[in-house]
Every structure is written in C-alpha cells, then in structure tokens.
Write a structure and sequence with these properties.
By secondary structure, the protein is an alpha/beta fold. It is 38% helix and 20% strand.
C-alpha cells in the first residue's frame, strides 16, 4: 500500500485526531491557524481548541491578492501564480507557528485549508442561464501538503456546489456539530466581510438547521476606509462612523438590492456589495456630491454603511423569529469587535440575548478555522448527519485530499 494511504488509514483509526484548521477571509487580516483535538463524528463530535494564532499578512502580499480579488478582469497569470504562492506561504506560516507552539509537523494528523476566496459567483448573482453556481478559492493544497509534510484537505466549497449548494455559507455543518443545544434556539452570527448566521433549533432537528448569508458585514466599510484613508484597513473602534450622521436617503437606496428580499438560504459576496454598489446608491439617492447632489462627509458615509450592515442583519433575524425575536445570538468574526455595529444590533433586537462563542468554549476569532477542522474530520470519519432534502443544504462531506509524498 502507498505509505500516504497507510497514514490516512492510521489517522482515521485514531480515537482523537490533531487537525489544524486554516481560514483566510476577504478582509485579508492574516491566516487564522487553529489547532484542534477532535474525536468521534457527527452529533457525537467533541472538539478541544488547543492553540490559536492569527499570522498577519505583509502589505505587499495583501496588495498582490487584492489585484486579483473579486475582479472580472483579473490577470490570469497572476491568478495562476498566486494559487501556488499562497499555498507555499500558508505552508511556511504553519511550520513557523508549530515551532512556536513547541510542536513538529509529524505531531499533526491533518491540515484543513479553506484557501483564499478570490471570486464567488452563485447563479443568483451572475444570472447567466447556461451556467451553474461557481466559486474559486486559491492556495493549492498540494503545495501545503508537500511544504509541511502533513496530509491536507482543501477546496471544500467545490463539493458543496457539486452536491447542489451555492458554495457558501458552510457554517451550517460545523455549527450544528459543535454548537447545537437541546432546549435553546440559537443563532450563530458571524460578521466577517459578509454577515451570515446559522439557525440551530431547540429540538436539535438537523433537517431544520440552515445557514445563510444576509448581506454586508464589514466589507463595504473596510473598502471605503481603504479607499479614503491611506494606510488604514478598517475603522478602528468605529471612531470615524461615530463622528458621522446616518443619511436616511442613502440608507434606503442601499437596501434596494433584490438579494436582500430573496429567501433563505442564500449567498453573496463583495462581487455585489462593493464601492460600485455604494456609488450607484449615492447616485440614486442624490447624495453623490456631483451635479448638484448632496455631498456627504466620509464619516457620514461610514455611519450609513454601519447602519446598513446592522439593519440587514436585524431584518434577516426577524424574518426567522418575528418582530419579537428572542433567540440567543452568539457572535463571532471581526465585526463583533465593532462597537457601533453591535450596539445597533442590540437596539434592533432588544429581546435577544447577545453572547459570543467564547461563552461556548471557542475563541470567536478562531471559529471559522475550527469549522474547517470539523469539516475535515467529517470527511475522514463522518458523513452520517442528514440535513434533509433541502435546496442549498446538501448532506455531504467536503474537501479534496492532498498527500505529502
């Protein structure tokens, strides 16, 4: 037997597996590296987060990724080169992180790599009748496996699409396996570039569980800051947005996207919610500052974008639970650190209880990396959970296995 497959079978046979989950989001803050000890599978899954670190990206690397991110006119040679380069850089980051944790590559059973999304094109967004849902994450798994000497599972989103989903969000699988609790209706709200949540019903019925994108989280605010404040990547502590005033005309125009009225589950990305979308909303609301339109300050625009993100989240949750929505909401993602955004969420959902995944034993900044470790574990030893016969939530395992030798 090929020694790689012997290693795979040895890992499958273990009572507990050490799996590194990797996540690199659209904010490009850095690579989240979560070392997890995972036992069993399905509803019996047990997870311990042993170590977590975010390794920041160099400004030059961020610029290289941004040059091909969410662009229809991306340079194909650069896409090809960055696919391999990201894999190599992620591999180097893993090795350095393991050294800092006092571990060796041979101590680790599997790496679960999300990769770097550069384009997301669900059919609901591209609207081309002869083409399927599509998405593209780069950062080649073979390069990570060879660089580290560790079995790597990657490219999870392609299987989700092949099995009938839209490639996102994938949180429904990990959230159900780890965070469900009988007797409590839970909303696992992740505010990254795009805001999404998973609904976990109090009866633990997997066929009722769903995960959906709801609209922009940080992406439009971050894009605006980066465009207007050189050297800044985001509005720290919402200081700029707090100095502004929400413009109701612009807010109303921002909320006209058909996506916002579509049913759940659904998926979107910065391919829709971007600075072009903002510019068109400013034109239609008479707030562009051109041709006699009202000119808004940067602070007013940021205040309005913050209100936009908050309102689409609040309205989505109310669609699930009614105007007196009172679930327990567990926050994760970079947006949970935006105090103005969270204040608006609490004001919009006064009957809901707001906690973070820290209260459930998982660092909220590590949650998405842990999710991919869970998905890798299901690929190896699970695949038994039935999420029902519903569009957008296929009952499937995901990921491609890359062997190190």
């Amino acid at each position: 037997m090929n020694r790689n497959w012997q290693k795979v079978f040895d890992v499958i046979s273990k009572q507990e597996r050490l799996i590194i989950g990797l996540m690199s989001g659209t904010s490009l803050d850095g690579l989240d590296i979560a070392l997890c000890a995972i036992s069993s599978s399905g509803a019996q899954t047990k997870v311990r987060l042993l170590e977590f670190k975010t390794v920041g990206y160099a400004d030059e690397f961020k610029a290289e990724v941004k040059s091909i991110f969410s662009r229809r006119d991306a340079d194909l040679q650069m896409v090809c080169l960055m696919n391999d380069k990201i894999g190599l850089i992620h591999g180097e980051m893993i090795l350095e992180t393991l050294k800092g944790w006092g571990l060796k590559p041979e101590d680790i059973d599997v790496i679960a790599s999300h990769g770097q999304t550069i384009f997301h094109a669900p059919a609901s967004l591209h609207r081309l009748p002869d083409y399927p849902n599509a998405t593209l994450q780069i950062g080649d798994g073979d390069h990570i496996a060879v660089k580290t000497g560790i079995i790597t599972i990657s490219d999870f989103r392609q299987k989700h699409i092949a099995a009938g989903g839209e490639g996102a969000p994938l949180a429904v699988y990990g959230d159900y396996l780890y965070f469900s609790k009988k007797g409590e209706d839970r909303v696992m709200l992740n505010i990254g570039g795009i805001a999404n949540f998973t609904y976990l019903p109090a009866d633990n019925d997997a066929s009722k569980v769903f995960s959906t994108d709801v609209g922009p989280g940080n992406t439009m605010m971050d894009q605006f800051v980066q465009a207007h404040y050189p050297g800044m990547y985001y509005d720290k502590d919402a200081a700029l947005a707090r100095a502004g005033i929400v413009n109701e005309a612009l807010l109303k125009a921002l909320k006209t996207a058909p996506f916002l009225e579509a049913g759940f589950p659904k998926t979107t990305g910065p391919e829709l919610f971007n600075l072009h979308y903002l510019k068109e909303a400013q034109k239609s609301s008479g707030t562009s500052g051109e041709n006699g339109d009202v000119a808004l300050s940067n602070e007013d625009v940021l205040a309005t974008l913050s209100a936009f993100s908050a309102e689409v989240i609040v309205e989505a949750i109310k669609r699930c639970f009614g105007d007196r929505a009172a679930p327990v909401i567990y926050l994760s993602g970079g947006g949970m650190h935006n105090p103005l955004l969270t204040e608006r969420l609490k004001k919009g959902l006064p009957d809901a209880a707001f906690l973070s995944t820290d209260d459930l034993g998982i660092n909220p900044d590590a949650k998405e990396a842990v999710l991919f470790a869970l998905l890798a574990n299901e690929t190896l030893v699970g695949g038994t959970v039935d999420f029902g016969d519903r569009e957008g939530v296929p009952s499937t395992t995901m990921g491609k296995i890359s062997l190190p030798f």
